[in-house]
Backbone:
C-alpha cells in the first residue's frame, strides 16, 4: 500500500475528549481529581500543547486510561509499524477524511470494497482500473463518510452484494431491502476456499461492525492506531466500544493487520502494547 505516512487519527486532545465524554467528567472535575490545572486541560483539548509525563499519568488515573501509554501519546513517542497486507489496497475517501479499502483474491481479481464513501467517480475509477469483479460492498457503519457512495457503486456493480449490520442498514435507504445483514460471527464465502467474517462491535454506532479476511481486520471506526472511535450509538455506549475491542478484536491473533476507517494501519499486538484506552 503505497503513499505518504498517514498521521494518527487522534491527537492527545482528541483522546482526552473521548475519554472525558466516555466517563462523564468535565474539565473542572478532571482538574480537581487529577491535580492538573483546568486551564492547561482546556488548552490541550484545543490541541494547544500536551501534558508532560507526570500530568498525563495523573489524568489517566482519573480517566481509566493506561498512564504510560497516554504519556507516550502526549509526547508523540509512538507510531505504528509499517503494515502492508497482501492483496489489500487503501484509498482516501475524498472529500471525507476517511479510508476505504479494496481487497481481492489473486485468482480472478474477485474483490470486496470496504466502506463506499466520498466522490463516486473516484471509487468507480479505482474499481474499473483494477479490473475487479466486485462481489461484496462491505459497510462498517452508518456514518456518511463510510457509506454515502453506496448507491452509485451498487448501481455500477449490480451483482455485488451489500453487507451491513441490521441496526445501521437504514442509512442506505431503499438499498437496505436488498442488503445482506450479517450477525456477529457470521461469514460470507469468498472464492473457492476463502471467507469474510463479520464481528459486531457496537459503541461508535449501534451497528458498527468489523470485517476479517485472511489475517486482516477492517475495523471501521471501532479501533484506530492508538485510539478508539467516539461513542455515538443510540443504545450502545463508550463501555461497549471498549468491551468490543477487548473481548473480540484483542482475541484475534497478535499479528492481525488492522486497517482502520481513519489514520494509519496497525496490528493487534501494537494496539495491546500502545493504545492508552487499554
Residues:
Amino acid at each position: 500500500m503505497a503513499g505518504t505516512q498517514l498521521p494518527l487519527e487522534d491527537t492527545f486532545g482528541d483522546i482526552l475528549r473521548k475519554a472525558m465524554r466516555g466517563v462523564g467528567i468535565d474539565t473542572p472535575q478532571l482538574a480537581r481529581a487529577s491535580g492538573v490545572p483546568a486551564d492547561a486541560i482546556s488548552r490541550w483539548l484545543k490541541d494547544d500543547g500536551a501534558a508532560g509525563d507526570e500530568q498525563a499519568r495523573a489524568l489517566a488515573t482519573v480517566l481509566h486510561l493506561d498512564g504510560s501509554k497516554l504519556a507516550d501519546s502526549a509526547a508523540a513517542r509512538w507510531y505504528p509499524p509499517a503494515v502492508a497486507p497482501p492483496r489489500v489496497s487503501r484509498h482516501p475517501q475524498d472529500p471525507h477524511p476517511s479510508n476505504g479499502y479494496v481487497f481481492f483474491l489473486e485468482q480472478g481479481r474477485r474483490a470486496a470494497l470496504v466502506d463506499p464513501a466520498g466522490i463516486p467517480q473516484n471509487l468507480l475509477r479505482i474499481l474499473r482500473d483494477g479490473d475487479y469483479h466486485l462481489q461484496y460492498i462491505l459497510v462498517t457503519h452508518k456514518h456518511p463518510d463510510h457509506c454515502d457512495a453506496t448507491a452509485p457503486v451498487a448501481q455500477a456493480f449490480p451483482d455485488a452484494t451489500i453487507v451491513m449490520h441490521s441496526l445501521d442498514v437504514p442509512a442506505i435507504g431503499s438499498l437496505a431491502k436488498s442488503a445482506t445483514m450479517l450477525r456477529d460471527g457470521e461469514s460470507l464465502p469468498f472464492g473457492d476456499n476463502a471467507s469474510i467474517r463479520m464481528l459486531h462491535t457496537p459503541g461508535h454506532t449501534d451497528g458498527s461492525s468489523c470485517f476479517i479476511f485472511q489475517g486482516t481486520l477492517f475495523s471501521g471506526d471501532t479501533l484506530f492506531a492508538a485510539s478508539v472511535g467516539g461513542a455515538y450509538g443510540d443504545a450502545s455506549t463508550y463501555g461497549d466500544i471498549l468491551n468490543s475491542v477487548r473481548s473480540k478484536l484483542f482475541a484475534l491473533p497478535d499479528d492481525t493487520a488492522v486497517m482502520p476507517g481513519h489514520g494509519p494501519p496497525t496490528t493487534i499486538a501494537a494496539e495491546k502494547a500502545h493504545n492508552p484506552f487499554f
Notes: The mean pLDDT is 96.
